[in-house]
Amino acid sequence: MNKQQIKFNEEIEQYTKTWTPAKVAAFRSAFLTWYDEEKRLLPWRVNQEPYSVWVSEIMLQQTQVATVIPYYQRFMEWFPTVQDLAEAPEDKLLKAWEGLGYYSRVRNMQVAAKQVVSEFGGQFPTTSEGLKQLKGIGPYTAGAIASISFKEPAPAVDGNVMRVFSRLFGIGEDIAKPSTLKYFDAVVRHVIDPIRPGDMNQATMDLGSSICTPTKPKCEACPLQSFCLTYQQGTQENYPVKLKKIKVTHKYYLALAKENNQGQFEMIQRPSEGLLANLWTFPLIEVSKEDYERYHQEWQGTAEGVLASETDSLLKTLQREYPEAVWQKQPVGEITHVFSHLKWHVLIAYGRKNQSLIAEETDKHVWITPETFKELAVPKPQEKMNQLLKKANYIN
DNA sequence: AACACGGGGGC
DNA sequence: GCCCCAGTGTT
User: Fold this and answer.
1) What string of DSSP letters covers A101-130?
2) Closest Cα partner for A191 from A28, A29, A36?
3) Which pLDDT does position A312 carry in this prediction?
4) What is the pLDDT of residue A360?
5) Separation of alpha carbons A243 and A254, rounded Å
6) Which of residues 189-218 of A touch strand B (CB under 7 A)?
7) What's the pLDDT score for residue A306?
8) CA–CA distance from A263 to each of A14, A78, A101, A360 (Å)?
9) Which residues form a coiled coil (predicted)?
């Protein structure tokens, strides 16, 4: 067992350590009693055939219960068995799904139906592992069918289940990350009823849709109140944790490290509002991603067949746009910096001027020696650039 | 790991 | 009218 596995096991134990066998038994009893009393009588709950469970689960992945019911009933009339589905003409198949969306799912269902007929003799595989071999059946659907139809104590973890269990156990992992699934899988395995695993999975789904709702959970009506860690802490509304995935925007710059004959570098103060307001950096020239990548390739010496007449080299650009300095042919280097919502890619170009031109100075524009950089407020990317210049012996 | 799939519901 | 939703497949 490697370190990561040990760490994982310890984390799971933190969640389950107060769940003694007696508590687990009481939990199962309370939950299943509630389910027996409250369970909704849905058309796909009249039997536990894998075919009916499968059809309903696929439909329910994309649509709410009330909408699914008529679709489900018509689907079962048109395709009563897996053989009927396997042999169905495509237009009838699509007609049956019309309005549900995600049409590839019904096509995958037919592929799976054909697999069942030809590879499994018309019978569904009876384990979650076997079920996962069927097209369109992933861990969730496999767990649902295996537990309901074959009484395998397999978790069926969907968004509802993550919500319920994150609150019950105070699981603060980010449910937006696919890797978080394993925490819920482990915790569900710890408490799932070995005699009625399917009912426990369905009870969890029902609880998630009727009581343990995303906002304003009806904890006063919850059969699991006394088992719920976050209810006791009053923190249930903070769960599940779902980090908004912020899209990172990439920005590409050339930084101009211009040194004059006094050993001074040009520094520019950023605008008083927005990102890094009022901080000082080398002059930054935003370039397109394409130009940046080309400059970067030239620098790394991997550009092939690039004709000077078609594209502009970094050196030519610098000489044309900033003729007051003598530019070094190659960039000093590259730094990147990740902000909360964007990533800077900066190539540092070094150029030397033969005059001092102090007259150019304004209050937002100074020439200073590296020794006095620290008198200016400088952001992290500029610090990285300074480090790079030091390392390459441009400054001390 | 990121994106596509396609409707419905919530704001 | 825009954003998010929830699994599975694909790249």
Assistant:
1) --HHHHHHHHHHHHHHHHHSTTS--SSHHH
2) A28
3) 65
4) 65
5) 33
6) 215
7) 46
8) 59, 84, 66, 16
9) none
Residue type at A279 in one-letter notation: L
The SS3 call for residue A369 is coil
Per-residue tokens: A207: 């609880």
> Does the C-beta of A236 come within 7 A of strand C?
no
Tracing tokens 């369970």 back to the chain, one arrives at A39
| Whether A158 CB is under 7 Å from strand C | yes
All domains of chain A, ordered by start, with CATH? Answer: 3-238 (1.10.340.30), 249-391 (3.90.79.10)
Contact A211, A236 (CB under 8 A): no
DSSP codes joined into one string, A145-201: HHHHHH--------HHHHHHHHHHHT--S-TTSGGGHHHHHHHHHHH--SSSHHHHH
A317: nearest Cα among A333, A305, A329, A335: A329
Quick check: helix, strand or coil at residue A334? strand
Running DSSP on this structure, what letter comes out for residue A246? P
- Of residues 216 to 245 in chain A, which lie within 7 A of strand B by their beta carbon? none
- Residue that has been written with the tokens 């003409």 in this structure: A89
pLDDT for A309: 43
Cβ-defined contacts of A367-375 (< 8 Å, 24+): A367/A260, A367/A262, A367/A264, A367/A265, A367/A266, A367/A267, A368/A264, A368/A265, A368/A267, A369/A262, A369/A263, A369/A264, A369/A265, A370/A263, A370/A265, A370/A395, A370/A396, A373/A265, A373/A267
Q: How far is CA A239 from the centre of its chain?
A: 17
Task: Confirm whether any atom of chain B, the nucleic acid strand, is less than 7 Å from CB of A328.
Answer: no
Give catalytic status of residue A90 as yes or no: no
Query: Does residue A102 reach within 7 angstroms of strand C, measured from its CB?
Result: yes
Alpha-carbon distances, residue A347 vs A280, A340, A389 (angstroms)? 17, 21, 12
List the A177 CA – B9 C1' distance (angstroms). Answer: 24
Residue with CA nearest B2 C1'? A247
Is A117 in contact with A123 (CB distance < 8 Å)?
no
